[in-house]
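May I ask for a single protein's sequence together with how it folds?
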Amino acid sequence: MPRDKSISHVRIMEAARAEFLEMGYEKASMRSIGDRCQMTAAGIYRHCRDKADLFDQLVAPAVDQLNAWAKAHMMRYEEPVKKGGKLVWQDSNIDMMRELVYPNMEDYHLLVAKSKGSKYENFLHDLTEAAQEKLLAYFEELRKAGYKVPEIPSPQLHLLLTAYVTALFEPVVHNYPCGEASDALGTLEKFFLPGWKQLMGI
């Protein structure tokens, strides 16, 4: 479905955002979105296939931005190891939250707290699973390169990552003001990062 910039499309997206934020995906209705933007259902369906597509148009950019940040983050750690260089601590998912997620709190609140019933309802679980797969592979590369990375069973790593991701996104679930979220992030940074550095042999 084309993403246009017409006045009608902007009105629809603003109305849809308000509806999904208030009602959540599952309870939101196209009729109510139409009422909010004073358009008929037929008018709305010229801009989307259905409710799922409308929600996707709202949250997909946030997902894409997060995935792009995570991919670049992994490359910053993988490249030195591949080239035989020294692994240096650069950034972490703490920085992702600080730079990307918390400044766009409403977008990510919509994604993680209002998506039940949509294809995104397990987003944090899926994010954790993907991170675990990549981290296990990376730990193995570090061991091959001579770093003293301890063997940690996959279920235990899953526990750690679940606790980490849940803590990072808890302010998003509850839609904290950005300043309050940033304060919480400082505490999480002090608590989690020493442990991750130890696991990576840094």
Observations:
- The chain has nine helices and no strands.
- The chain has two domains: 1-48, 59-199.
- Residues 1-48 form a domain with the Arc Repressor Mutant, subunit A fold (CATH 1.10.10.60).
- The mean pLDDT is 90.
